[in-house]
Amino acid sequence: MENMEEQQKLAELMMSNILSLGKFSYSLQEKREESLINQSGRMLTACSVTDALLPLSISKVPDVGLMVLFAGILVSFVFAVIAGWRFKARPMPSIDVFYDEVYKRWEEFKSQPVFDMQWKYHLSAIHKRKKENNDKRARCILISMISFVISIVIATILIWF
Asked: What is the average per-residue pLDDT within 103-122?
């Protein structure tokens, strides 16, 4: 009997720690999402400033350079907008869903580890989707930055040579 109680306490301790780590990991993805969206906004600002300065460089940049510069900035702008988009995410179920789930299977929900497993299941699902969305944002920002820098470098080279 004592061995069974020790195993129960150990299982509760393990699940509690797993949930704590899962919640921390999810909060890091939340911070990453906000950072990526802010970075997207900064890229949009850089594109806007460059577009505003574009008329000043028209006379100094050959037609080919101007087209490369414009195309690079356009690609950068489009991918920055996509990165800032709020992709569809899996929401946490409402309290009614949890209530219905527990009410239908009330005999299973007589111990904390069962509730913890529900937490783990739902947190895992929304965390996975948020990570996938953040990975999409990161790729879009990378493409945006690369196209922006390349277009500026090419335009600069064409101005100086």
From this structure: 79
